[in-house]
């Protein structure tokens, strides 16, 4: 009995070892594959888009590694691409108003519209966003957006005062008003303050442009500085600046969640929408992986990562994304108005006509606006 049992046991162990080896073989192969060097994807984007809180999950699933190069302002983005040979950037995060320039210059590849959930987008305009299509062909996919308006320290500017750009001229703020150092958002706000809501703050004739310059120059004595991305954060956080022109919740939202007494609102004159979209760089050898990443960022999971991005928050563009954000972080959904019935609901503000898509100047050149901005800074 014992000898038979021992024989059976030895036979079982031998067979188990053989089976285990066979079963383990594909595991070993899979492990070797996973341990291979990750595919490097070169990204050109605003700061934060290539950071772990956004891309780590996609990197782990697909054995890729993003190598980001960051810029601030669409003008700088275009300049960087122009200075680089085709194929340098696999994925480009573009401000919505600059996509058309990228396309006309041959810097981006055509996309397949069937790859993206346009039928789930929150707003019809987003499915056919200006400049993203040409001759019925898609070249960029919108992935997030946000609104710009009056950003202020709640201890020094009341909520009522913040409902107009006029608050920037408040005597008590002399030397305490800052600018995010990019001409389009700030000059667009000055244009709205002057009443250029129709056809839009960036579509103005020569006379209106002269008045925008005059209005902007009148603000100069109030201005205490022009700041880059990090400087904008720090100057509001430490109270060096008590109001900021040219930004919105994408800056103050991060500070607000950390307890700083700051906020952003869309004033009565209207606000400006920033729009961020992904493109595949011309000549990229990793277009397939980049396309998968764009699909991931438009999935509910990707939309939540975008909305909660540590560098700066943004609104979801899909219904699935909004629902996923509410399930994952209702506090943030409520804070940003991404719940039904909120007075600051981003789609509601658009439908009420209070939001204007940021654009490049339609009747002046970018150089005209940029030259004036330089003059203004040096005044």
Task: Supply the key terms.
D-Maltodextrin-Binding Protein, domain 2; 13 strands; 5-stranded mixed beta sheet; disordered N terminus; alpha/beta; 379 residues
Oligomeric state of this protein: single chain
Give the radius of gyration.
25 Å
The helix count comes to 15
Spatial gap, N to C terminus? 103 Å
What's the architecture of the largest domain, going by CATH? 3-Layer(aba) Sandwich
Contiguous uncertain segments of 5+ residues: 1-33
Q: Please write the CATH class name of the largest domain.
A: Alpha Beta
Strand coverage percent? 15-25%
Overview of this structure, please?
- The structure is a single chain.
- The protein has helices spanning 2-34, 52-62, 74-82, 99-104, 124-127, 183-193, 206-219, 229-237, 249-257, 287-297, 300-307, 319-328, 330-335, 346-351, 366-378, and strands at residues 39-46, 64-71, 91-95, 133-134, 137-138, 141-148, 150-153, 177-180, 223-227, 243-245, 262-265, 271-280, 355-357.
- Helices cover 42% and strands 17% of the residues.
- The chain has three domains: 1-32; 39-145 and 274-321, Periplasmic binding protein-like II (D-Maltodextrin-Binding Protein, domain 2); 150-269 and 357-378, D-Maltodextrin-Binding Protein, domain 2.
- It is an alpha/beta fold and 379 residues long.
- The model is unreliable at 1-33 (pLDDT under 50).
- Strands 1, 2, 3, 6, 12 and 13 form a six-stranded mixed sheet that branches. A five-stranded mixed sheet has the order 9-8-10-7-11. Strands 4-5 form a two-stranded antiparallel sheet.
């Amino acid at each position: 009995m014992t000898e038979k049992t021992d024989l059976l046991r030895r036979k079982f162990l031998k067979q188990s070892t053989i089976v285990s080896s066979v079963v383990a073989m594909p595991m070993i192969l899979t492990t070797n594959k996973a341990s291979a060097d990750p595919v490097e994807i070169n990204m050109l984007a605003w700061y934060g888009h290539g950071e772990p809180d956004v891309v780590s999950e996609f990197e782990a699933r697909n054995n890729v590694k993003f190598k980001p190069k960051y810029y601030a302002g669409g003008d700088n983005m275009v300049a960087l691409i122009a200075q680089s040979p085709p194929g340098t950037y696999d994925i480009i995060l573009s401000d919505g108003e600059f996509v058309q320039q990228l396309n006309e210059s041959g810097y981006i590849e055509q996309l397949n519209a069937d790859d993206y959930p346009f039928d789930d987008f929150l707003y019809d305009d987003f499915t056919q966003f200006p400049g993203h299509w040409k001759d019925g062909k898609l070249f960029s996919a919108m992935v997030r957006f946000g609104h710009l308006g009056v950003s202020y320290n709640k201890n020094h500017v009341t909520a009522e005062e913040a409902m107009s750009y006029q608050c920037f001229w408040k005597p008590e703020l002399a030397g305490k008003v800052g600018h995010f150092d990019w001409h389009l958002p700030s000059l667009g706000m000055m244009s709205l303050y002057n009443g250029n809501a129709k056809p839009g703050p960036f579509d103005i004739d020569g006379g209106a442009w002269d008045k925008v310059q005059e209005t902007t120059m009148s603000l100069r004595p109030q201005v205490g500085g022009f700041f880059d991305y990090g400087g904008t954060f720090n100057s509001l956080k430490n109270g060096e600046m008590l109001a900021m022109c040219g930004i919105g919740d994408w800056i103050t939202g991060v500070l607000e969640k950390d307890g700083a007494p700051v906020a952003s609102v869309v004033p009565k004159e209207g606000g400006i929408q920033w729009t961020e979209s992904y493109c595949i760089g011309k000549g990229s050898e990793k277009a397939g992986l980049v396309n998968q990443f764009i699909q991931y960022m438009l999935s509910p999971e990707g939309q939540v990562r975008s909305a909660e991005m540590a560098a700066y928050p943004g609104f979801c563009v899909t219904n699935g994304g909004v629902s996923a954000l509410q399930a994952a972080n209702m506090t943030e959904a409520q804070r940003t108005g991404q719940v039904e019935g909120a007075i600051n609901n981003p789609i509601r503000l658009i439908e009420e006509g209070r939001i204007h898509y940021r654009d490049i100047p339609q009747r002046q050149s970018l150089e005209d606006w940029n030259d004036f901005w330089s003059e203004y800074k040096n005044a």
